[in-house]
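Continuing the batch. This is chain 6 of the set; chains 1 through 5 are on the previous pages. Same settings as before, nothing changed between runs. Recording input and output for traceability.
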Amino acid sequence: MKNSIRCGVAALIATLALGGLAGCGGNDNATSSASGSASSAASKAAPKATKASFPYKEGAIDAQDLVSRISAAQKKLKSYHSEGTVAMANGDQSATIKVVGDTDLSDPDKPLTHATISGVGQNMETVSDGTTTWVKTDGKWVASDSAQNGSYNQAMALSQLADAATSAQYKGKDAQGHHFVLQLDGSKMAGASSGASSLGTIPAEYWTGDDLTPVKTKMTITSAGVKSTIEMTMSKFNEPVTIPKVK
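Output for chain 6:
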């Protein structure tokens, strides 16, 4: 079980980043990759839209339109912090992994993400520059293989969710934000991965602010007998973040 969890964790980290493409990172030189001009109280929260401008009413909505709007709102951010869990179960065995990360979107064409993963007796640290991923192993940063990179980029980026989304509903606003439920075609999310056809339909929930900036997500994926429930919240919008330097 531990081996299957360890193998599955890396492929799920990007989901928690909601398109920030969490990866696995370079050397021990940490550099401040700050979204520098963000300042003071205004930087602590995503911008708000007026109530009148909110585009949806409760019920079925256009899935591609929703994903496009969420993606556009996130692209306006310079950075954010994320915290979440991956609860994995296989038969009568289960484990929970905690993920904490930061994403720097100051260059939208090259998102930078740093994450730490802890649980099942292990600690991992990852970094991504948007195209390449690394993992810290035995104190050294090691680049992941090309297949894993493809999985990050194709399976988890928000830009891919529009093609995968088959339907969407707006459930209204609750204490966590505006609540949306998407049904995703697992084969399209998985792209070129070998297990694509086994994923089936994947339910995904999103909570957003008034401007559709995502603040929470929940997704359940079942693959190779392992059920993974991924929950993640985003905060500290536009605050400076530090990403380890990767070479």
